[in-house]
Amino acid sequence: MIRVLLADDQPLIRSGFRALLDLEDDIEVVAEAADGGECLALAGKHLPDVALVDIRMPVMDGIEATRRIAADPSLAGVHVVMLTNYGMDEYVFHALRAGAAGFLVKDVLPEDFLHAVRVAARGEALLAPAITRRLIDRYVSQPPPSRAGGALEELTGREREAVALAARGLSNDEIADRMVISPSTAKTHLNRAMTKLYARDRAQLVILAYESGLVIPRNR
């Protein structure tokens, strides 16, 4: 059972998402929050697998709540998916660097929304296609910093290959097919890379891949 925390200051939005989630046999909404402070407190109390967090909320915004969740070792199992009406670049980068595992706009299709919850619960990164496009465009438009360049030297060749494929948006199964290995081995390569690079999840691993120059956007 996937345990979900809903955090949004608009009751109608929360009730709409809850109605979708309550129809699924493998998903349970364990709590609802109306602001970032309440979100943080309920995350500590219920330890959900996934926290769906609005990026703009009173008391404490979603990005700060996400940052505090990511910084708390006792909440390491909580995967945050940011929700917003906006697709603005700065929100994307602040949210991902704060520790979000995914980023979805609120007009997402119901099936894509449910898919996002399940993907996040597995600890995989998820970004809406439009957001992924913005992420790549950001790195096309300006030279990436080499923040992780030195750390990448700690990766094995196969780990680097797996990280590069993950940064291209491939799933574990697709990475396994490309590298001619099992999905579990692909996941192991990525987990070891995350440990070596101090990345909390795949979303941060993808950012590091671009920032280090390991992956160069094809448009460049």
What does this protein look like?
The protein has 220 residues and is α/β, with parallel strands linked by helices. Helices cover 53% and strands 14% of the residues. It has 11 helices and 6 strands. Helix 5 links the parallel strand 5 and strand 6 (126-127). It is globular.
Radius of gyration over alpha carbons? 17 Å
Alpha-beta classification: alpha/beta
Strand content: 5-15%
Report the oligomer. single chain
pLDDT averaged over residues = 82
Q: What count of helical segments does DSSP give?
A: 11
What is the count of β-strands?
A: 6
Encode the helix/strand succession as letters. Answer: EHEHEHEHEHEHHHHHH
Briefly, what is this?
The protein has helices at residues 11-22, 36-46, 62-71, 89-98, 110-121, 129-141, 149-152, 157-167, 172-179, 183-197, 202-211; strands at 2-7, 27-33, 50-54, 79-84, 102-105, 126-127.
Helix and strand arrangement:
Layout: E1 2-7, H1 11-22, E2 27-33, H2 36-46, E3 50-54, H3 62-71, E4 79-84, H4 89-98, E5 102-105, H5 110-121, E6 126-127, H6 129-141, H7 149-152, H8 157-167, H9 172-179, H10 183-197, H11 202-211
Parallel strand pairs: 1-2, 1-3, 3-4, 4-5, 5-6
Helix pairs in contact: 2-3, 3-4, 8-10, 8-11, 9-10
Q: Could you name the key traits of this structure?
A:
220 residues, alpha/beta, 11 helices, 14% strand
